[in-house]
Each structure stands twice: as structure tokens, then as C-alpha cells.
């Protein structure tokens, strides 16, 4: 692939990896609302060719990638009258990540599939707006090390981490005592196993405060999402596991908090809307004016806080174990969870079975204390195969 495109304008040229997803489409709304600040130069999708085509026709990017190679011709033909380059397949995602035609990658692919393109972008010195938390869960040490060596900023998009990032602006070297990640508790807050055993896909996908992709919605319902976020926070903010706490805050108004070593706590607040952390990450260090609805303190409202129920939502306990043990355990946990969620979304296993799959897989896989990148790839593959064998996928 050639690297010929030269940026003549002051727009920041964004590559959206995963443009057809929940984060990707909201990012395109932000870009459309701020055409002087941003352009979309790379769009990628796994299988939704129709949406990718319509996005390409609207935003006129330099390149699009469709993951599913069977859909290459459809996309190519639909864009034949444009000068948009079309590529297909997993390898193309990694190659496109290395192109010069963009300034910042929005990593918005879901799951482990986001790791390799993001690593490639970092190795090429591209700043990352990171939505894909699994990248840090799987290989956080290697990703952050490479980002440090290449002096590449990783700006979080995940709302909790964006909140912490925002609280840390201006704090320089001030010491963090702990961070407090808030969790809505998901659609089954307060429920017990006798209820959860019968939960089905559609119910689990109904999140009370956020509208998100299917995988993260299920992770929010099992609280695995919060466990993945604890691991994500460890790497992003260079914390010890003991410095990371989770509190249930069902209203999702405080997006997370930082407590400094003088005991002072900073919180970042606002109505739940992912466009806010997305636009913050894309425009950082600038803030962009918008007309999104504002939180109104004058209306009667109550903000509540409670402890998470890790006895019922055991996925969170398993993720905390992986956070503390480190090594390849978070990678194995993530792989098993991706298989379990995939099976649950297809009604192949029940809600509580997801935890069984994850638990049995992390017990079975060999522990590697200091994995190389290759070790992570292998651990991911082996954990997936084992988890799939448990549910006869
Ligand atoms: P989604 O399922 O809505 O979209 C996923 C995107 O990734 C789609 O564009 C899809 O085509 C692409 N994709 C899926 N599988 C792929 C594969 N194997 N190879 C290449 N591309 C693939 O997901 P989402 O909710 O937008 O979440 C994206 C990421 O952002 C996740 O890691 C999630 O945890 C994180 N995140 C999402 C939200 C949210 O509100 N949706 C909030 C915080 C963090
Ligand atoms: Mg989050």
C-alpha cells in the first residue's frame, strides 16, 4: 500500500477502526458536527457492508476495509465511482493502520480483534483514542511500553477512564491514592442467581443508561465489563491493583473519581452520552462546544453509591483475581469471556454458564508470569479453543 496522501488542511484526520459499531457511528456523528476540526479518512467494518458503504459515500474517506472478504466485491462495486480505496480481510486492517493518510486512530473494534491494528498504529507513532478496552486487558504491559517508547498518547474513550483522565489534567506528578470506578450495575442490579439463571439474551441487552454494542452490553449485565475496566485502568494510569475500587452508582452521573494522597476526591460528571468522551478524546486537549442535554441539579434527584455484589456477579470476582495475578491471566479471562458471550448471544448457554466457562478456562490454562506478545497470542488461541470445547461450539 502506498503512503502518498499529504495533509494540507488543519483538520485532524481520524481513522475509525470499527466505524459501523456503537462507538464508531457516534464518532462519525461527532465528526459530522465538527467538519472544520475533523475528517474521517479510514473506516472499517467486519460485516455490515451496507452501512460501511453509506458511511463511505457520506464521509469520502481515503480508505475503507471490510473484514469479511466475501463482501469485498460488493463494497468495491458500490464505491467504484469514487476514489476511495477498498481492502478486505484481517491482514488489511493491520496494513491500513500503518498508512500516512490519518493522524489519529479511534480504536473502536470490539474484542481481541482490535489488538493487532492498534499495536501497528502505535508502532507507527499514531496517537490512539482507545475505546477497545480488550486491547489493554490482553496485552496492557506491551501496549503501554510500546506507546511510551514511541511517545504515543493513549487517550481513553471508555467513559470511566475518560473521567479519570479528565480528573488528572493539571495534576502533574501529584500522587493518586486510589481511583473509584463507578458502575451502573447493569440491568440486573440487585438480582440473585435464582433470577439470573433464567435470563435470556434480549433482556441482558437492555441496559438502563447506555445504548451499546451487544458484547459490552452483556459484559455490563454480568459486571465483567467493570472487571475489564479495572484491568484497563491499571495499565492506563500505572496503578497497583489495590488502588482500584469499584462502586455501584446506578444513575451513571459521576463517571468515575480520583482520590489524591491528601484525601481530596475529584469526580467527572455529566449525563451518560458516549459522544462526550469520544469528542474529548478526539479533540484533546481542547474541549468542543456542543448542545448535548445538560445535567440539571435543580431537579429532584439522588445520587447513590453501593458495594458491588461479587458473590452473585462472580465474573467481577474472577476479573479481580486476574487483575491481581497479572501475567497471561487477564488475556485468558478475556478470551474465555469472548467465547462465553458469543455463545450466550446465540442462546447456546445460559447467563450464569458464562461465569462457569470463564472460571474453568482460567483454572485450566497454564500461567505465564511474564508473557511475550507471542505468548499472549497463543494464550488467547488456546483459551478460546478450551472455552469453546466446554460448550461444544
Ligand atoms: P459494536 O459491536 O457496536 O461495534 C464493533 C465494531 O467492530 C463494528 O464496527 C464491527 O464491524 C467491528 N468488528 C467486530 N468484530 C470485528 C472483527 N473480528 N474484526 C474487525 N472488526 C470487527 O461495539 P461497540 O459497543 O461500539 O464497542 C466497541 C469497543 O468500545 C469495545 O471494545 C467496547 O468495550 C468499547 N466501549 C464501548 C462503549 C459503548 O458505549 N458502546 C463504551 C465504552 C467502551
Ligand atoms: Mg465504561
CATH fold-type name of the largest domain: Rossmann fold
CATH class of the largest domain equals Alpha Beta
Number of strands: 11
Structural shape: globular
Largest sheet: 7 strands, parallel
Structural class: alpha/beta
Strand order of the largest sheet: 4-3-2-1-5-6-7
Walkthrough of the structure:
Helix 1 links the parallel strand 1 (12-17) and strand 2. This protein has 2 domains: 12-156, 3-Layer(aba) Sandwich (Rossmann fold), CATH 3.40.50.720; 172-269 and 292-325, no CATH class. 44% of the residues lie in helices and 15% in strands. The mean pLDDT is 96. It has helices at 22-33, 49-59, 72-78, 90-97, 115-123, 134-149, 159-168, 193-196, 201-204, 214-222, 224-236, 275-283, 314-325, 329-345, 353-364, 373-390; strands at residues 12-17, 38-45, 63-66, 85-88, 104-107, 128-130, 154-156, 176-183, 244-248, 254-260, 265-269. With 393 residues, it is of the alpha/beta class. Helix 15 (353-364) packs across helix 16 (373-390). The longest helix has 18 residues, at 373-390. The radius of gyration is 20 Å and the shape is globular. The strands form 2 sheets. Strands 4-3-2-1-5-6-7 form a 7-stranded parallel sheet, sandwiched between helices. The protein binds nicotinamide-adenine-dinucleotide and magnesium ion. The site of magnesium ion has 4 residues, from helix 7.
Amino acid at each position: 500500500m502506498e503512503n502518498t496522501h499529504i495533509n494540507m488542511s488543519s483538520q485532524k484526520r481520524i481513522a475509525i477502526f470499527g466505524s459501523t459499531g456503537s462507538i464508531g457511528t457516534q464518532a462519525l456523528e461527532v465528526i459530522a458536527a465538527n467538519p472544520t476540526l475533523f475528517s474521517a479518512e479510514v473506516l472499517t467494518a467486519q460485516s455490515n457492508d451496507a452501512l460501511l458503504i453509506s458511511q463511505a459515500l457520506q464521509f469520502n474517506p481515503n480508505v475503507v476495509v471490510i473484514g469479511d472478504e466475501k463482501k469485498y466485491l460488493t463494497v468495491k462495486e458500490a464505491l467504484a465511482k469514487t476514489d476511495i480505496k477498498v481492502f478486505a480481510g484481517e491482514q488489511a486492517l493491520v496494513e491500513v493502520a500503518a498508512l500516512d493518510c490519518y493522524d489519529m486512530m479511534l480504536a473502536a473494534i470490539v474484542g481481541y480483534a482490535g489488538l493487532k491494528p492498534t499495536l501497528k498504529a502505535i508502532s507507527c507513532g499514531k496517537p490512539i483514542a482507545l475505546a477497545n478496552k480488550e486491547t489493554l486487558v490482553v496485552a496492557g504491559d506491551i501496549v503501554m511500553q510500546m506507546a511510551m517508547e514511541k511517545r504515543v498518547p493513549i487517550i481513553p474513550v471508555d467513559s470511566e477512564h475518560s473521567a479519570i483522565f479528565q480528573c488528572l489534567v493539571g495534576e502533574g506528578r501529584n500522587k493518586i491514592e486510589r481511583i473509584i470506578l463507578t458502575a451502573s450495575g447493569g440491568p440486573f442490579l440487585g438480582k440473585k442467581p435464582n433470577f439470573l439463571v433464567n435470563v435470556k439474551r434480549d433482556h441482558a441487552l437492555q441496559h438502563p443508561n447506555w445504548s451499546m454494542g451487544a458484547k459490552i452490553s452483556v459484559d455490563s449485565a454480568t459486571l465483567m465489563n467493570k472487571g475489564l475496566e479495572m484491568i484497563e485502568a491499571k495499565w492506563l494510569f500505572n496503578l497497583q491493583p489495590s488502588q482500584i475500587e469499584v462502586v455501584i452508582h446506578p444513575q451513571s452521573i459521576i463517571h468515575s473519581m480520583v482520590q489524591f494522597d491528601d484525601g481530596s476526591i475529584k469526580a467527572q460528571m455529566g449525563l451518560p452520552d458516549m459522544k462526550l468522551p469520544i469528542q474529548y478524546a478526539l479533540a484533546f486537549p481542547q474541549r468542543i462546544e456542543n448542545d448535548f442535554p445538560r445535567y440539571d441539579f435543580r431537579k429532584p434527584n439522588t445520587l447513590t453509591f453501593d458495594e458491588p455484589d461479587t458473590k452473585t456477579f462472580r465474573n467481577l470476582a474472577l476479573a479481580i483475581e486476574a487483575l491481581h495475578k497479572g501475567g497471561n491471566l487477564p488475556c485468558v479471562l478475556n478470551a474465555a469471556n469472548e467465547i462465553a458471550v458469543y455463545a450466550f448471544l446465540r442462546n447456546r448457554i445460559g447467563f450464569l454458564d458464562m461465569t462457569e466457562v470463564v472460571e474453568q478456562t482460567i483454572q485450566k490454562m497454564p500461567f505465564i508470569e511474564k508473557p511475550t506478545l507471542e505468548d499472549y497470542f497463543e494464550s488467547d488461541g488456546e483459551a478460546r479453543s478450551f472455552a469453546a470445547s466446554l460448550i461444544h461450539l
